[in-house]
Write a structure and sequence with these properties.
single chain; alpha/beta; eleven-stranded mixed sheet; five-stranded parallel sheet
Length: 539
Amino acid sequence: METLLLEDTQKDIETAAKIINDGGIVAMPTETVYGLAANALNGKAVAKIFTAKGRPMDNPLIVHISGIDMIEKLGLYREFTEKAKKLAEKFWPGPLTIILPKGDCIPDEVSAGLDTVAVRCPSHKTARMLIELSDKPLAAPSANLSGKPSPTKFQHCVNDLIGKVDGIIDGGDCTVGVESTVITLATNPPRLLRPGGITVEQIEKVIGKIQVDKAVTHQLEEGKTAISPGMKYKHYAPKAQVYLVKGNSFVPYVNRLTNSNTAVICFDEDEKSITGLTYKIGSKNDYNTQAHRIFDVLRQIDKESSINTVYAPLPTTEGVSLAVYNRLIRAAAFRIINSDVFVLGLTGPTGAGKSTVAKVFQQNGYHIVDTDKIAKNILQKNSPILPKIADAFGDDIINSNGEVDRKLLAKRAFKDRESTNKLNSITHPAIYEVSLLEIQEYSDNGFDKFILDAPLLFESNGQRFCNKTLAIISILETRKNRIIKRDNLTPEEAMQRINAQHSNSYYTSKADYVVENNGNFQDVQDKIALLIDNINKEL
């Protein structure tokens, strides 16, 4: 498909209006983000939007109008209620979308089969001119590929949609930077479904108390229908994985994590204190600037092919910052790290007695995150990493039941160091992602101290997720006897395992703390009690 790149002129907007009236789709600027527009009364034209974006058909669209008269003239709503009129008089034209039961003229493609429709009147002059010249209400979600950060610049639309749409209008940069606030008046009381440039407080001054839908700050419940755009589980996301960091220790925490493959989204005040690649989104209390910049920053990060992980501070839920929170929580797929909890990385060679030490910490209020168990679970049927493992080690690694053939995988993955590294590059990121989610879950339930039990802690660079590290070592004979008893091996087999691993000095040279465990349980308990006491004094 040829895509016309149009200027913000009357002649080019007339060309765009003709495309709309001929059943085509055009990316247009609005004050919030760029929208991908089609005639809202033409179901076939609207369906083209979903195809171009790769957008699920169960995600409803917003209808854009040039004025209140278009609602009444076309019967877009079944009834334009008094509360709706008050909100329209106060905030239209502007970044507020109102949901009410739909009129008969709205096709199912627009409402995703729902009995309601979302309508707003944009303030951007180009969007309004396009609506007026086409003389049609325009269904227009954000003009990006589905799931990616929304476009706030002309070039963003070009990058995503060239060859997929009939035209793109260059209207400059969007001023608000996040999509419109969405409120439904089809419920009693009214509910905010998506935060934006118009805040809860502003709305309540006009129509009284409203509810904030749980899905604004939390994951949409499984099986629940999205009744507004932007309610899906993961949305607005760059290619890299995004983690939100809450707590008072954001800067020291991300400084432990940064490397050549990470980026940090930060407030202006924190930039100079952060090592590594940073992207500023504005001052801590300048919520409007944060909203204006957030999607552009996520798009900038996408240009850096080496970045695979992004850390960002968890925004507040005050005023316009609620919109930034809502967008980032979805970009992060609800991954939140608590920077204020204490994580002690536990490692050491096989047979050193790490499990015994972990139990002592557990008795002292630590939650144990067992990466060995996690490693087994992430290889279960339907795990998202199985296709990657099949690509790396052969399709026959996955048997007819969809499960990993563990013996065959071990044979291929451990035949040489290169193959082992290939497997680790797939499994380690997944293991630590699950580990961080487990820490998040238990910190939400009151735990503030954790053991990250990881035999390959240093080899996998897992120490970056830890405040401190502890190595458990033991004399050779004790290790050998433990392995023989634990795994039912011969002395020769036990020594083969020991010789395949690092020496004690490898661990002692890297760890913050070292405990020798030679089989005297009371001695180990005493050593750990002293260590816990020292850790508590440091915290």
